[in-house]
């Protein structure tokens, strides 16, 4: 359940919220595209290191980073196709 919530929020919800905020503002198209692409990226691998060093759930973070990276192979082309 934590993985599904994390992946859904990061790979789907965050890009949708970013798109909505961009629609409400007067942002140039190249900046809007960059913001949407950056919001659709998976979790950073450094988050595993932080979780391990700060006493967090490192195995869960490793699963989230790995899973989101694999799922991003499907979601990134979708986001790119929507930007055209």
UniProtKB/TrEMBL annotation:
One of its GO terms (cellular component) is endomembrane system. It comes from the Bacteria. Gene3D superfamilies: 1.20.1530.20. It is found in: Endomembrane system. The chain crosses the membrane at residues 58-83. Keywords: Membrane, Transmembrane, Transmembrane helix, Transport. It is a multi-pass membrane protein. PANTHER family: AUXIN EFFLUX CARRIER FAMILY PROTEIN (PTHR36838). This is Sodium bile acid symporter family protein. It comes from Tamilnaduibacter salinus.
